[in-house]
What we know:
By secondary structure, the chain is an alpha+beta fold. It has helices at 4-7, 99-107, 114-126, and strands at 11-18, 32-37, 40-41, 59-60, 76-81, 88-95.
Amino acid sequence: ALQQCLTDESYRVMIFCAGDIYGAQNVAFPHQSELKVNNQEIKANLRGLKNKPGSTRPVDITAALRLKLPNYINNVEFTYALTNKKFYLVANVCKITTVKELVSIISTRRRIPKESVVSELNKKAQDPDVVA
């Protein structure tokens, strides 16, 4: 899977971090944390916006990986301090989809006709069990 990053630049290796492993989780790195790949510190915003859970983005480490060397073991180090809470880290190979590609995908999908949506809303409005 890592070799896809060499042949197709839309594939990236991303680091995700969360404070729990159950249910849907926001990407959240500890406040005092450091990420290194092959002893090279990764400079990235691990915080996100203040008081906005879920605003942190995963970290792209593709450029720091040594992918062309066969059988090379890439080391990822993640250290954090000043907390007793456990954090869980995962590296995923992700395919980046551009806005142009998304527009193309959405525009070729089957559309729901306006009349169908309006009639469904009217039907729900007539339901005595639904209170507005």
